[in-house]
Amino acid sequence: PFSTGLDLPGRFLFATLTLMTLIAILVFIEEAVYIYRKIPSSKRSIIIWINAAAPVISTTSCIGMWVPRSTMFTDFTAGIFFAIVIHKFLMMMIKECGGQKMLLRRFENSHFTISTGPCCCCCLCLPHVPITRQTLLWLKLGTFQFAVFRPVLIFLSIVLWTNGNYVLYNLSPKGPALWISCLIGALTLFALWAVGIMFRKVRILLKCKNIIPKFALYQFIVILNHLQTTIINIFATQKIIPCAPPLSSTARGSYIAQQLLIMEMFLITVISRVVYRRKYHDLEPPACAAEEPGDNTQTP
């Protein structure tokens, strides 16, 4: 394995990044115990899922760093997990408004602004959509389709990869990698668009529940896990990142992406603990007070 050929600075770097991953896992476990004890059951699992995004990505990156041949599987595992987290984040915003019925009651005569990123931020002429049960269903489907179809496409990619037909860095129009990547990209944009529409509507109402820093952390994970990794991989395939024997350019780009993700996800895990740690009954001024009846009985 590559790790046996590391010099002393390389071993120190690997040990430090591994320690950061272990600390991130311990911080998440401690936070999950706190959430399980302090947060109402209707929100408990959703918040734990969202908090698990950064530690899971850090763990898969650490495994890929130590076992280079597992990179295909670790990247796909992180991708599948985060596809589910995007849907969970949308559901969390609905839950924080008191549930779907309470949200519809609050915004009974209001409208969604669909001219928002990442799909339609420049299309200011788009009409405003009334907030109804049907439009909420469409937003849920916008994130749910990503949680369903991305694992299917990733499974198809693994099947083609084991047969030698799928090469991750081969973006030729004749190969399946380009078309699968474009389809996953389109599904990702559509899911992020649905979350952006909902956030734009509820950000003022949920400001007392730290929704803005929570959304910022979620956006950082999206950018770092997708955009940053894609840019590094493009630089590696174009030989902008030089090879360093025994690593080729693509392998070195993969190592750089994994090591950066470990450090970044460690910081996000620590910050998430601070943002999600505050007790909900301390964040309930009159403008935010209407929670679901079941939540009030379970809040400590």
Structure description:
A two-stranded antiparallel sheet has the order 1-2. It has a single domain, classed as Rhopdopsin 7-helix transmembrane proteins. Helix content is 69%, strand content 1%. It is mostly helical and 300 residues long. The radius of gyration is 21 Å and the shape is globular. α1 packs parallel to α9, α2 runs antiparallel to α4 and α6 runs antiparallel to α7. Keywords: Membrane, Transmembrane, Transmembrane helix. It comes from Notiomystis cincta. It is found in: Membrane. It is a multi-pass membrane protein.
* SS summary, helix count: 10
> End-to-end span in angstroms?
51 Å
- Determine the CATH topology: Rhopdopsin 7-helix transmembrane proteins
**Count of extended strands:** 2
Q: Indicate the low-confidence ranges by residue numbers.
A: 280-300
Biggest pleated-sheet summary: 2 strands, antiparallel
Order of helices and strands: HHHHHEEHHHHH
Q: In which order are the strands of the major sheet placed?
A: 1-2
What is the domain tally?
Answer: 1
- Roughly what percent helix? 55-70%
Assign the structural class, choosing from mainly alpha, mainly beta, alpha/beta, alpha+beta, or little secondary structure: mainly alpha
CATH architectural designation: Up-down Bundle
Determine Rg (CA atoms, Å).
21 Å
Mean pLDDT: 80
Basic shape: globular
**Beta-strand percentage range:** under 5%
Name of the top-level CATH class: Mainly Alpha
